Amino acid sequence: MLAIKNYFSGSGYLDPKLEDYSDLDAVRGLSRGNVEYYNSKTSSFIPFLDKFTLLTRKQLDYLDFKKFLALKEAKAYRTEEGLKEMENIIINMNTGRSGKSRRKSV
Prior knowledge:
The protein is mostly helical. The protein folds into two domains: 37 residues, no CATH class; 44 residues. Helix content is 49%, strand content 6%. A two-stranded antiparallel ribbon has the order 1-2. Helix 4 runs antiparallel to helix 5. The protein is globular, with a radius of gyration of 18 Å. 2% of the residues are buried.
């Protein structure tokens, strides 16, 4: 996880937050072997995921996520139509995605 954090120029953070990640036993003891990386800076991970595409259904969720971000940046939530479009994207992501392209409506 530290290598991933370093790849993204040190943006984001690792959880649990420790001063030193070199002692793996300490990391395992604090988090039962799990360390998570958080990064809300889309400018760092969007180009990465565009270059290295996912090979599962998660790729469809990622593409929906990008559509949602574009609508958010365009402030589409300020209109009824834009807000409904954003809600539809959310509803159809992850477990809401059924079949190939069957879409639910709000």
